[in-house]
Design a protein that fits this description.
With 130 residues, the protein is of the alpha/beta class. The protein is built from 5 helices and 5 strands.
Length: 130
């Protein structure tokens, strides 16, 4: 019977009322992506609009993890809100760059940097619709 290489650990803290800091530790792949998705959906349900995804302890992420990040990004934008990836490991950063996810979803080096980006978004005037 195979033993999980690195079980997923997800911790959610709230630096602000509408901001969820989601710290992920372990492999983010087809076997663990559903658990990650449940945590994000729960935070959306509770009114969080901004998601800071700390991936500094994720040694590996496959397309399942990327799809969930892109899905929450789309849902957050409709609120309006945002998603920020924080300190991805080199292997995860490479995948984000190769797939173009890092072009769509901002990558920050720290929680403080991501919170500054959230503040910048909230201060920016809304663009008028054509």
């Amino acid at each position: 019977m195979p033993i999980a290489q690195d079980p997923l650990s997800v911790e959610v803290t709230l630096p602000r009322e509408d901001v969820a800091l989601v710290t992920v530790e372990g492999y983010l792949d087809v076997d663990t992506a559903t658990e990650f998705q449940h945590h994000l959906a729960n935070q959306l349900h509770h009114g969080r609009r901004h998601f800071l995804l700390d991936l500094s302890e994720v040694p590996f992420m496959d397309s399942s993890g990327m799809n969930i990040i892109l899905r929450v990004y789309q849902e957050a934008r409709e609120l309006p809100g945002s998603v920020h990836i924080i300190s991805p490991t080199p292997a995860v950063r490479r995948i984000l760059d190769l797939t173009g996810v890092s072009i769509t979803v901002p990558v920050s080096e720290s929680v403080d940097e991501a919170l500054e980006r959230v503040d910048g978004l909230q201060a920016a005037p809304a663009e008028p619709e054509a």
